């Protein structure tokens, strides 16, 4: 018996030691000394209590080389996933299940465009941003060569290849795609118009409605700026191992409306939930430069960040920068399309896609003068027409200068410097938000805006053979929507429609109705003594005032008899003010009732797959009030019956099904149908889809007061199950007062590190879920008090 005990004890000890060795071999190094090749001087990195690196260097290239190293040790696998998507090489790394995603992104042209941008980059003269970017890449590569790789590589039996400037451009291309709403929306709207008729679009907000809220412009005096196989696309994109960038809020308040008399700045970018979350924070200092930034994996310069002088934030512009051209083949030459009476060639190339543990796949990509033909990779397009459909996308029309733009914004010395940098961004469309210590506030809609034929609808497939409906020129950047030091004292952007341009036109796009913008703008306008502490309440608000109005429309269509078995429930939801407190019952009823109302109305015409696609687009969110209020809405009739159903009949049937399902789901007592029982909050890891790896990598938090169109935007997909997983939300929350920049606040949804063995992997998850904040430290003495980890990088 003693021998057995000794043997078992020895085996347990060996297992523990082995596990400790495995963990140590895959953990980041936060203290001690590391030799970093190419440094001119020693660099000190202090990691604060949340793992944020504070980098102190003697020069710029040393600082960015160090940033590359520490960024890689915390986020290398995330960087790997981002570059694999952008280069169309996921199948090589993860297997054949990702082949169709590689085919899609290669056809769309992101890897090809990355190569073109890399060639442009290499042909440009040396510059500070080139030197800094190359230093960052060198730091990433030294970690790849010498550092402790994250355990995902061991689990997959893979090792990372060298990181390159082309990978940076590929990641930028993926970011641009995540903002391109057209590929998810236009095929569906074209299907409705073509198969059902344009009258079916009357109850859907294809374009911005007069009742939607517009962002007002306030132009400054003109400045001289350069104008330089899944069954659906949604199902395919669900396989992506990286999150989509989806929306955002930001506002900047002038000193005239703040208690401190200084500018206040707020930003919360809305991005798909993931583990790790998207942003990586880093504070960099070298002589003449102090910057606290939020970085995407693989990008050297913070897209969001601040210095003592200025702060930069962003939201999605949501402008329509992708058109689809329905081509007409030349009847005498199938390798040409017709434009008027003239033939235009179709080019073709073969790309080889490497597939893990399988044979390489050759894939043909065809292009017209308008762009790549998407029929082979977008199921909705293939099902809608036999004619080629080409994608014309602003992003692929010229090389990206995103690195130059983001470097210049971070290093800006004036508001004009930021305007000049914003003008370099051609796509994706971004709302650049700005505030500074001199009291300036500003917003620029940064994008190349194409001149389109005013007679065409950019959201319906355009006629590729029409000579008068071809891509034209660009509007000058000075005409872009913007607001510079407006007299009302604040700028706000929340993905809603911008006001008319100086030529009287609206920029077409995929804008949200403006609920969030209106709530933010009206609240800010209501007082002149704002503080950072006060702004927390606004940034965390989960109220939506449109939902209760929709409920009233639904209630008018039913009678009290429908609630006979649930005494008091109709009064409960009738009195709902749009809150999403975890103890509320009304949201639980509303979302299921809305789902069944839309399903019973639309699935008979669209089919369930197309209906589910509709629910995934901006169109559903901004169309619902119009849809519900229209008694002549053609969608109300069920095509599967001889009778012509009315609005009231459909809404009553939806309610009956809703109540029956909720009773089964949560019990007979409706007072126990609490919102918290219907909400799940999970931040999924790319490997977390495989059990039991979900328990190891995914980060699950407390239930959230989820509301897709509250200021605190926590989105989920409508479904018939009545259990909603939050799919996206604020990827950070930032609040800053220029009275004391070193006391700015933020929080991340999970943590700084993407390394599962790091103590900073999910240490902010419950802070985020509970609406708490932490400091963005920039004061050396405060950082030293917060830091137990000091890493020194030596030449």
Write the layout of secondary structure elements.
Layout: H1 2-25, E1 32-35, E2 43-47, E3 53-56, H2 60-87, H3 90-94, H4 99-108, H5 110-123, H6 128-146, H7 151-156, H8 165-178, H9 182-196, H10 233-237, E4 245-253, E5 264-272, E6 280-286, E7 289-295, E8 304-306, E9 310-316, E10 322-326, E11 329-330, E12 333-339, E13 342-345, E14 347-353, E15 361-368, E16 371-372, H11 379-384, E17 389-393, H12 402-410, H13 415-422, E18 430-436, E19 441-446, E20 462-463, E21 482-484, E22 490-493, H14 515-525, H15 532-539, H16 546-556, H17 569-574, H18 586-606, H19 608-615, H20 618-629, H21 647-666, E23 679-683, H22 693-697, E24 699-700, E25 715-716, E26 724-730, E27 734-737, E28 745-746, H23 765-769, E29 774-775, H24 780-786, E30 789-794
Parallel strand pairs: 1-30, 3-6, 10-20, 23-26
Antiparallel strand pairs: 2-3, 2-30, 4-5, 4-22, 5-26, 5-27, 6-7, 7-8, 8-9, 9-18, 10-17, 11-12, 12-13, 14-15, 15-16, 18-19, 19-21, 23-24, 25-26, 28-29
